[in-house]
Specification:
This protein is mainly β. It has 1 helix and 13 strands, in the order E-E-E-H-E-E-E-E-E-E-E-E-E-E. Helices cover about 10% and strands about 30% of the residues.
């Protein structure tokens, strides 16, 4: 079941969606568009590395632990530098290309900002 955002004016948790792309608060009568709530949630997403530093698209990171590759049988060694990362939603937070391995996904908990 999806949870609806609280009212931005009175913080009531009793909001509902009217089917026309708007949220409505029955307590204060405030109405706001669904897209605004989705944009606020997306803007709130912040990716952090293992040290707590904020990551952004295009950053360079360093792998902090040997990572075994599924299926390929290789290992990405600790200290491997990964340039020009792309942050994505999903199981793995980082899409990147690593020299000698190709395109892959990494989790932010196994990298630190260079």
């Amino acid at each position: 079941m999806s949870t609806l955002p609280p009212c931005p004016q009175c913080a009531s948790a009793l909001t509902y969606e009217d089917g026309m792309g708007q949220y409505i608060c029955p307590e204060c009568g405030h109405e706001w568009p669904v897209q605004a709530a989705a944009a606020a949630e997306e803007a709130a997403k912040v990716w952090r590395d293992a040290s707590g530093n904020v990551l952004q698209d295009g950053d360079t990171v360093v792998v902090i632990k040997d990572l075994k590759l599924k299926g390929g049988g290789g290992v990405v060694k600790q200290g491997t530098k990964v340039k020009n990362i792309r942050l994505v939603e999903g199981d793995h937070d980082i899409d990147c290309k690593i020299d000698g391995f190709g395109a892959m996904g990494l989790k932010t908990e196994f990298v630190k900002k260079a």
